[in-house]
Amino acid sequence: MLDISPSVMQALLALIVVGPLLGAAAALLPAPPGLKGKSPEQAVLRHGVTVTGAVLVAAVVLALGFDRDHPSTIQASTDISWIPALGVRIHLGIDGISLPLLVLTALLTFLCALYSYAKPPSGDTAPSPKAFVALLLLMEAGTLATFAVLDLLLFFLAFETVLVPMYFLIARWGGAGRRAAAWRFILYTLLGSVVMLLGLLLVGLRAGTFDMVALATDNGRGMSGSVQVIAALAIGLGLAVKAPMWPLHSWLPDAHTAAPTVGSVLLAGVLLKMGTYGFVRIVLAITPHGAHTFAPALAALATVGIIYGSLACLALARSGTGGDLKRLIAYSSVGHMGFVLLGIATLTPTGLDGALFANIAHGLITGLLFFLVGAVKDRTGSTDLDTLATGGGAALYGRAPRLGGLVAFGAVASLGLPGLAGFWGEMLAMFGAFRPAADLNRPAFLVFMALAGLGTLLTAGYLLVVVRRVCMGPGRTATTEPGAALPSLPDVHAHEFAAFSPLVALTVLAGLWPAVLLGLTNPAVQHLLAGGTP
Question: CB within 8 A of 372, min separation 6: which ones?
Fold first, then answer.
């Protein structure tokens, strides 16, 4: 741990939140003549790498200066009155719950900017890279602010800021069906946000403050039980759309299938975490009675999502169904995020630790998988599993062995192989379901745990089928000479290695040394469930 003064920590957190916003504005300005390089397009893409890189460095320094001996304490706090008439304050701060998500967001956005610099975004109607970089930075600013703000109305503003750039990334740089997918994404999330705003206003007006620290310290004592139930339902519905929780998930597969590679990485790796983070930070901490009321329903829907996502993936992985690899990974996210929601629903430290760990693991692993699918599409021109698996297919082990090995690594990490990051979160979530909070129905949660365990088996089944079909394949076509192999494909490029390797390394590190993350989350979770500050 670095010895950094509180004022420097405050400045770092402010830079992390505001820096991308200023960078987005600067991206729209003309590049100075000496910085254009080969073209203005290259200059603006380099600007995106520079800004996101600076934010990542600031996030790492912030993490190194974080007091790990007191992870339940809000650190790097800034509290300034903004709108006195409404009692809204610019209140920023981090603890052991929000810090890992902050660093994950900074890392994934930097890797996306780096990937885009080497492979500029393209599309049939794509505008200049200026708009792309500005939208990428605006989305980073909104996401980082979501994890750093401690005021309910600021949380809502940050939450909504992310929607517009993601809509345009899908609609302007996406593939087939991009406009319909973008509209479905924005309509679902906006409708959920309207309901969530009503719940946030109800909490703030009844409790007399929008400050999340004060509300969590009060732990719902300033609101009646019925108000907590109504608020938890309204806020939870808005968060469940973003999570995504079955049956409010139907926008996700289309959005992932149509989105460009970096859009899919950020959507799965970062945006989905905003919903589950809100459940922990707001619903559990501020409306505990409402959280206890809806915990069994949340666990049931989470378990359905686990089974449903796995069965959908099995159907897509079957030969002859025309399943899309990006769509399959999108449905796998429904199942994986189901484990996060199940852990939250247990209302226990073990379950919440598992949920927060699974959040980070899913961001690392699924972000890697979407990068890899983009690389496969660049080489083969398709993400259709039947095309990749039949004559002329990918056969990555023989044609691009390093890429094939990475695809297999991503698959076994996603299925929860012990020793990799995907294992710990799901295991702890099921342990939490084995012994939920004392006032919850334990037999029901034992059933949820058993079904979740079945989901892990189904997950292993479809991911191993994908590895067999994409990485092995026939190795030849009907037109090649007997015994002749398919021509080789370009293997992992330097820019792809730079984007993939940090995710691979962190997936292994989190799997072998889970205490790095659990040491941050567990004290903060214990404090939150005890009714202290979030």
Answer: 403, 406, 407, 410, 500
CA 130/CA 32 separation, integer angstroms: 14
DSSP annotation of 151: B
Between CA 386 and CA 172 the distance in angstroms is 27
Q: Which two structure tokens, joined as six digits, stand for 468?
A: 């067999």
| Residues 492 and 405 sit within 8 Å (Cβ to Cβ) | no
3-state class of 102 per DSSP?
helix
**C-alpha to C-alpha distances, 85 to 81, 82, 88, 149, 209, nearest whole angstrom:** 10, 9, 8, 19, 12
406 vs 41 pLDDT, higher one: 406
Q: Give CA torsion, residues 512, 280, 144, 270, to 10 deg.
A: 60
Q: Token pair for residue 394?
A: 């990918």
Q: State which amino acid sits at residue 338.
A: G
Domain locations in the chain as residue ranges:
6-478+486-529
The answer for residues whose C-beta is within 8 angstroms of residue 463's C-beta and 6 or more apart is 313, 332, 411, 412, 414, 415
Note the pLDDT of residue 251: 84
Which residue has 């009675």 as its token pair? 289
Taking the C-alpha atoms of residue 115 and residue 132, their distance in angstroms, rounded to an integer, is 13
Q: Which two tokens stand for residue 192?
A: 């959920």
> What would the pLDDT profile of 432-469 be if each residue is shown by its tens digit?
999 998 888 889 999 999 999 999 999 999 899 888 88
Tell me, what's the pLDDT at 478? 46
**CA distances in angstroms from 123 to 95, 176, 299, listed in the order given:** 40, 10, 41
CA-CA distance, 280 to 356, in Å (whole number)? 9
